[in-house]
Amino acid sequence: MNTLHILNGDSTLFSFKETGLDGDTMVWREVLSEGPLEENISSGSFWRARSQWITQSFTETPDGYQEKMVDQLSKLTEPYDEINLWFEFDLHCQVNLLGAMNYLKQQADLSSPAIYLICPADFPGKENFMGMGELSGEELEYLYDNIRVQLSAIDFVIAAEVWAIYVSRDAEKLKEYINTTHFWGSLHLLKPALEAQLKRLQVNENGLNYVEQKLLDIYNYGFKTRPEIYRKFWETEKIYGMGDMELDIYLQKIGLTVDS
Asked: pLDDT tens digits for 69-78?
């Protein structure tokens, strides 16, 4: 069987190589939870805007982004019999999952490949599970054998609806969708991620969203170095799935002077 595994990051790829699972791999090296978006994810303008934003915001070159992300998209139009999507519970991963599903819907004949989702919220014996990057190859195989679900047509309908609302950045539309949707198909971890996004879209009396206010509170509480701030944020806000560089964008936006 001709199989493709789309992985959520290079840390997962490192462990995935230790599994006995057959197939090609592609790493979804994006952060669609941040930066410019448009509904048509298969358009050239979408990826040009992403390239410009990524290279301005992170330590990446246009050629590097082209090679590591854009060029990899060609795999999604190849004649695979099966595609496995490996994404996690947090907002970062859930939006990347929406992006991957909508790209597949726009580019591929979905009646051909069987598309499966492996999306863990936790892992047996790991009290503070942070993501698949901390798992061994054997543990990834456990997820494959025990939580893998096949995505249906309705899952892709839900993904398209949510993607359009996410791209709009309209807090009222998102709030209404969350409150009125009672069936999430196999995308069972999407709702809590969207609830976290709603908190980012809403601004308080200080003109700050939830993430900005949280970082400011941590700073004012006496945590002045980047590692301290990162650690305190992740203790309670792992739902956002933000890495160091993403948090740095917020720290810079609210004008905090922090030590390395």
From this structure: 999 999 998 8
